[in-house]
Amino acid sequence: MSRDKPEELRRFREKYGLRFTFLSDPEHSTHQAYGAWGDRPGRGLGVIRSTVLIDADGKVERTWYGVKADGHADEVLAALR
Fold first, then answer.
1. Which residues, 6+ apart, have CB-to-CB distance to 35 below 8 Å?
2. What is the largest CA-CA distance in the chain?
3. Residue 73: domain span
4. How far, CA to CA in Å, does 61 sit from each of 17, 36, 49, 52, 54?
5. Is 42 found in the same domain as 56?
6. Based on the structure, what is the number of domains in the chain?
7. 3-class SS at 67?
8. Residues 1, 31: one domain?
9. Which end of the chain is more exposed for a tag (fewer CB within 10 A), N or C?
10. What is the pLDDT of residues 31-73, one digit of tens each?
């Protein structure tokens, strides 16, 4: 989920050869619903980098907020096991 517009996300996806779909939320309503929009200490209001793990039935299984890219994928993969 990104605040970027769909066209920007399409260009990003093509540039890096990514094969998954990005979702656009320029009004940040979905970000707010999942707790991923708010005050960021020292940086003001904006997107709080987050991961939400949703099961096949649409239930939120786990959330991570304020994540850093390095090492986070391993943490998510561990939760999936």
1. 48, 50, 63, 65
2. 37
3. 49-81
4. 29, 16, 17, 8, 6
5. no
6. 2
7. coil
8. yes
9. C
10. 999 999 999 989 999 999 999 999 999 999 999 999 998 999 9
